[in-house]
Design a protein that fits this description.
Length: 86
């Protein structure tokens, strides 16, 4: 679960940073700020940035999930084999 929370926190941090940057640029360039567009642009920018910058964290999380799924599958197969013996 540690990998999940690290990845999630970094993803949220990227979004907040992108939101602040987009809001600041929009505020400097235009008279009024449309928060919906700032939100959408920040979401897209942070998504692209996380795809590039968070590759290592995403891979660590995937390995953890894969291992957990493998253990669950093994337990299920053991229970199924035990059930077949009866």
């Amino acid at each position: 679960m540690k990998e999940f929370w690290i990845y999630t926190a970094l993803r949220a941090g990227l979004f907040v940073g992108a939101f602040c940057i987009v809001f600041g640029v929009w505020f400097l360039v235009a008279d009024s700020v449309n928060l919906l567009w700032v939100f959408v642009i920040a979401f897209l920018v942070s998504g692209a940035a996380s795809y590039v910058l968070l590759e290592r964290q995403r891979a660590a999380f995937a390995v953890k999930v894969e291992g957990r799924a493998g253990r669950i599958t093994e337990k299920y197969e053991e229970m199924r084999a035990k059930e077949d013996e009866d």
